[in-house]
TrEMBL record:
One of its GO terms (molecular function) is iron ion binding. It catalyses: choline + 2 reduced [2Fe-2S]-[ferredoxin] + O2 + 2 H(+) = betaine aldehyde hydrate + 2 oxidized [2Fe-2S]-[ferredoxin] + H2O. This is Choline monooxygenase, chloroplastic. It is an enzyme of class 1 (oxidoreductase). One of its GO terms (biological process) is glycine betaine biosynthetic process from choline. PANTHER family: CHOLINE MONOOXYGENASE, CHLOROPLASTIC. Pathway: Amine and polyamine biosynthesis; betaine biosynthesis via choline pathway; betaine aldehyde from choline (monooxygenase route): step 1/1. Catalyzes the first step of the osmoprotectant glycine betaine synthesis. It comes from the Eukaryota. Keywords: Dioxygenase, Oxidoreductase. Residues 136-311 form the Aromatic-ring-hydroxylating dioxygenase alpha subunit C-terminal domain. Belongs to the choline monooxygenase family.
Amino acid sequence: MSFLRNYFGTSAVPAKEEKKPIRALPASWYTSPEMYELERRSIFSRKWLLTTHKHRVPKNGDSITYDAAGYEFVVAKDNNGNIIAYHSNDLFPAHVHIDLNGFVWVNLDASETPEVAWKDDFEGVDEQPRFKQYNFEDYSFDHTWDMAGDFNWKILADNYNECYHCQVAHPDIPTIADLNSYYVKTKDGHIQHYGAQRPDQVAKGFNIAVTYFWPNASFNISPNFFFMQRFTPTSPTQCVMRYEVYRHKDATDENFNLISDIYKRIMSEDKYLCMHTQKNLNTGVFVNGQLHPEMEKGPLHFQKTVRDVVTEHFAKEEAAGHQIWPAKHDLPVGQEQDNTFRTGVSDYKVDTFKNSMGSGLSTVTAIAV
């Protein structure tokens, strides 16, 4: 692990907060395989990941496979109507939290109790006053779509959490929000985006609430639809943008497609911005520049959180003398042959777990093989 000291200096202790203006993360944090592996251990292996909405698995036995930074896991509704999650490779259970609005969060920490509690990063995020104008029960899952690109996942997050570039890069955005009123609020693990809409925009269904959830997810909700996006890293310089789109029960085809198509154009434009940014990083053109304390408040908060989390985890590894992978678990000797998985409290037969899935048995079995 000594090579990683190059990314933090000689000390593994998080650096003191710099005076403004603050410099961005170094370019190496967007290209290094070693940094990517450290992020897998310190972030995706132990932090809460906003994954989907309960409407994605409406029936007992429904199950969906997800991935994040090389970790594959399943979200399912069991035969008792409970939403559960488990690691795909061995059916080892993952931690699940359903927030007040029905969003499903997964923590892959293999401990009986995850090191990080959901409320540590997200307490109150599901109680934003602006959510009162929406009834999440009135939406249903409509479709998914993906875009893969050659860029680090953090570039997408940096891009998403500021609108410095919106005026010139996204011609659709001025039609759905007033960019002059745009600002963000940051707190713990989330970044709330605000932009006032004119009365004519509200009449078209463009009163939109946007929140980014660290590390890699967000959702935009409006009267006619909401969509979730997840930035799923597949390598240090590659990522897949994954989208789930939900439709309001009263939305007309015209109103639903209008806003759905706008966001697809915006996300496609962001993809190419990120790809060209990554090219500059790969060639060494960019080292790290200064960020504007207000116009780039979102990226500042995102990057500071990245810096703090990975540096803290690296310090733990230095003290322990080895890498720490919270999502990994060690089965007792001989237990693999007994076809069981550990819950942290007791052991259950995999067959018992499969049976709990009822009509979803064949789907779960296929995933587990």
